[in-house]
Amino acid sequence: MADHDDDETGTMIDPAGDHRRPANTGLLMPGRFAVKGHIHPWPDDPACWRDLSACQVCGLTMLKAFIKSSDWVIRRVEHVSFLDECTVRRGVSIDYVPPSEAVTLSRPDGQYVRVLPLAIMRRKSLVNFDLRDHDGRALPLLGLRQNQALTLAAVRAWAAASLDEQSETVSQEVDEFLDDVIAGDQTELWRAYKRMWAAERRTQLQRLGKDQLFRVMLDRLANSFVLYGLHDGPTGERRVIKFSYDEPLTLRYAKPSYRATHDTTGKRQDKDENTGLRSFGWTTLSAAMGFSTTRIVFPVPAAELAASFHFEISAPPEVSIVKAALLAGRPKPEAKTSALPAVGEVNGSAMMKERQRRRPSFDSIDGGYPTVDLHVAGVPYGSRSRVRVEVEARVGGWFATAVFSSWLASAILLFAYLARPKLDVGSALLVSFAAGLAALLVRNDPHRLVTRLLSKVRLLATFAAVLALAAAVVLAFGRPQAAHDWLLVLFIASIVPTALISLSWLFALRRSLRNDPQESPWEHHRPRKSKSTSQDPEQAAQLKDETRHETLASKFENAPCPYDLAYEKLGFNRPAIRVASCESGRQTYPWNKEFADAFHRRLDEYLAAVTAQRPNSDHGSHDAEAPL
């Protein structure tokens, strides 16, 4: 975040502060702090922030809080609205209860502050960013170097855990590599990765480069930064925090970037190459002419960071949302299980089922609504999450005006040809009509997205107005017989844009009339005995009572690659306009239950190991429990 680069300008965050160690001395000391009552004084200078970047307990605690965000973030809502034809604004609301284990800092006045990872954003400047609390008060943000110090603590600790270096320190080479990846500029980042690719065999840097559990975190942080929030209330207090920012909308169609799971041998699943379609290709022209709806895809990678995730989108005036779908899940398929686990009992109390399914979470709504709300729950970490929205201009308003004006232009040209008016009177009438028609077409629209969606329709309507103006010029300056012949030519020419505009409007009218609203899969209805031929839900006779979503869910659950099938059935494999989201996504998706178990096992075991060792000196931490 370039607007917060107000700290020191040095490129290396030295964990030793001003007391530098010899070049051959490792920098990461496991077990440096105790986890119980682990509190740092608020760092009041760059040296203190550099020292914080060496704390392994803070690093592992921060990493665990982020990976398990769904344990403490109750509800996350993202609302998208269209500012104009090329900009959308995304507002995020996070309803959370701070975790009991979080990085804690103590302010000079004795107030304790918990540092919470709220989101992971692309490493770029955010446009029109705003961060506020539940009462609407502006909240401060950490500076660039402060943000990097906390992130560097996490990646340093994870590197030590991946190397399992409890008896020796991590090398200076590895530490400089991690510093360049997290705190360096683009050139230093590239050079750091080149050093890793060229590292000698059996060195720590080479081992880290081959470790998939380490690389899955490093690669994402190399392209991103973590947005941290500061919580200054008690541990169990529930709060809401909100932030918003602008994202570009180019309205240029592109091919899907995702590769199916069975096509990813040695390749990234999200392609980097330019997949944009030609401006005059059929897909682009069909949408611009209104023959088909306009498809827009929004990345929502933060769906995995909350127990319940909502995506709301509001269409501008004279635009309706025809279809919308949300797909969130791990592309890497899980092994099939026989059935959901039964309800258990803990300390004499009933326990809810652990409803982990093979299929991805999804929501889908068809209708023609001004606003839709898509919802998924229990999205596992490591998922690929996308929203597809199909919008179109309504048949009333500007669209109807364009159809009427084009027919009026053709009619007046035909009338002028058949009536053979006097040149002075005819030219005056046509000039007046052309001027009025042009004013009608270029009027201010309720929202600029309307005419941007129908850019070719507007072009054709303008062409019809120009033909009327050309007829007035012919009558004013041409000979009578020649002018009469030109009126016929101009009338025939006007039929083409009029017919195309009318055809486009009829397509839109047909879609609106045939639009059958479909319920969301979250709308549940109890079964009724009178409408059922069998009381056994496993019987084939019961299938005819299933909704479309129930049928899809059953297919996804039993498919060899559930995510790939859902990606196709929900329409995500079709070309669409891709929003350049500020939220950071992934390019590969190695996560499944086995991968997640290995990741959490390494994290928990190493965190237990470093916290079991008591420090020789407290380094500013406190052994007493914080009164939170």
How would you portray this structure in words?
This protein has helices at residues 46-52, 56-67, 144-163, 172-183, 186-197, 204-210, 212-222, 282-288, 398-419, 423-441, 448-453, 455-477, 480-514, 548-558, 562-569, 593-612; strands at 39-41, 73-84, 87-96, 103-106, 112-122, 127-133, 224-231, 239-248, 253-254, 294-299, 308-314, 319-329, 345-346, 349-350, 361-369, 371-377, 384-393, 576-578. Helix 3 packs antiparallel against helix 4 (172-183). The model is unreliable at 1-36, 535-539 and 616-628 (pLDDT under 50). It has three domains: 2-18 and 28-72 and 90-242 and 601-612, no CATH class; 250-261 and 274-332 and 359-393 and 550-578, no CATH class; 398-514. The chain has 16 helices and 18 strands. The two termini are 30 Å apart. It is an alpha+beta fold and 628 residues long. The strands form four sheets. Strands 6-8-3-2-11-16 form a six-stranded mixed sheet, with no helix packed on it. It has a six-stranded mixed sheet with strand order 9-18-10-17-12-15. The chain has a four-stranded mixed sheet with strand order 1-4-5-7.
